[in-house]
Amino acid sequence: MSSTFQAPKGTYDILPAVSGTVLAVRDALAAPLRRAGYSYIETPVFEDVKLFSRGVGESTDIVTKEMFNLVKRGKEELALRPEMTASVLRATLQANLHRSGNLPVKVWYSGSQYRYERPQKGRYRQFWQVGAEAIGAEDPALDAELIILAVDAYRSLGLKNFRMLLNSLGDRTCRPVYRAALQEFLRGLDLDEDTLRRAEINPLRVLDDKRPEVQAQLTGAPLLADYLCEDCKAYHEQVRELLTAAQISFEDDPKLVRGLDYYTRTTFEFVHDGLGAQSAVGGGGRYDGLSEMIGGPALPSVGWALGVDRTVLALEAEGISLTQPSTNAVFAVPLGEQARRVLFALVTELRREGVSADFAYGAKGLKAAMKDADRSGARFALVAGERDLAENLVQLKDLTTGDQTPVALDALVATLKEKLQ
Ligand code: ATP
Ligand code: MG
Predict the structure, then answer these.
(1) Which residue lies with its CA nearest to atom 11 of ligand 1?
(2) Residue 131 near residue 108, CB atoms below 8 Å
């Protein structure tokens, strides 16, 4: 450590050695969405804290334990966003996007999220998601579309060891009946006070409890699949058929509920088998009631969020490295003051012509500067001293072959552009 300060607990810096991969992952996760009519959206990193308590759910870990509240003039009115669905829906309602055109409103985002969690590998207090929301339509094809786009994104990165878990959470007709049955069952179990309280507020969340002693007691729990109404059953069957027709494999997971309160009907999670405990690389589902929960009209919607950090870890686990283009095509090495001015001007001109170029900064000797040129990954080094300039020349050195040729100054940009074609 060579500084007084360190990144805050649970955060990390995305340094040049991996930042190329991170950017490539974000691009790859978004590319299928952009081809499917989703437009980019950005929202603030903080929002009214009530948007999250109402929109994400009072009984969720995210709201009860993981929220980063901001104190403003002594009051906690704002919070850093723990996820983006509530924000995106808030923005949609605020701008009346749902009234200004055809439904669904289809948007995608890429951004950092904040949760006060216990930091571990793959679990951070600041992490990144690429996500998509399709707002204002109830259509099994839309649920299927989003799932297909996520799978295509993972596949485009070369990932193989991921699986999708699928479930239906029912709707306002059938879920209450199931909820009551589950509550009845949970009351008969040997659970701690916290869990019993959760069973009263949101019993479905208890199914998601990761503790083995809780899971062991849940073996005989009633399953939502047995309580789905005819509409929900038919809807879910259509989603499954569309996925199968698109060669998407999935595993029915009747206990999948996920950590947010707003989900209805289609619910899914992507897990990667090379990541240990933090195996979820993405997840999402339908949230038909969320708009009304935050004061809007009925807007049945569906969306997902994919974790960028864990996708990068999944690539590592599968030994996949995304090839990055070499950063610079040309590296200029001036010998002497006059050469510095001439080559600096040439580098500027090359960049303006679309050729990536860098320069040996600092007073360095030829040997050290040539080492920098090699390290930069450039195809060509541009070397010039007093004698070359007196003849209006620069030396162009191909760093892969070692061949060096003199090129007239006024022909240099054209020559390089041709050689780099
Ligand atoms: P988990 O069960 O691992 O806590 P989650 O259900 O809380 O995940 P979501 O809220 O559905 O996760 O977020 C979608 C994705 O964002 C996750 O699948 C995961 O890849 C990523 N993610 C969530 N929390 C974190 C975190 N603290 N650090 C890194 N990535 C995260
Ligand atoms: Mg979580």
Answers:
(1) 283
(2) yes
| Number of other residues whose CB lies within 10 A of the CB of residue 249 | 9
| Residue 329 per-residue DSSP state | S
Q: Taking CB atoms and a 6 Å cutoff, what residues make up the pocket around ligand 1? A: 83, 115, 117, 122-124, 127, 129, 258-259, 278, 280-283, 305, 307, 309-310
What residue segments make up the domains of the chain, in order of their start? 16-174+228-317, 330-420
Q: What separation in angstroms does the CA of 371 have from each of 324, 338, 399?
A: 21, 22, 11
Instruction: Give the global pTM.
Output: 0.92
> Cα(301)–Cα(289) distance, rounded to whole angstroms?
8
d(CA 151, CA 291) in angstroms, rounded, equals 27
**Number of neighbouring beta carbons within 10 Å of residue 2:** 3
Beta strands in 120-216 (DSSP E): 126-135, 162-168
> Domain 16-174+228-317 carries which CATH code?
3.30.930.10
Fold (CATH) for 330-420: Rossmann fold (3.40.50)
CA atoms of 196 and 190, how far apart (whole Å): 9
3-state secondary structure string, 258-309?
Answer: CCCCCCEEEEEEEEECCCCCCCEEEEEEECCCHHHHCCCCCCCEEEEEEEHH
193-205 per-position pLDDT tens digit: 989 988 988 888 8
CA distance 353 to 351: 5
- Tell me the residue type at 272: H
d(CA 47, ligand 1 centre) in Å: 20
Predicted local confidence at residue 327, as pLDDT: 66
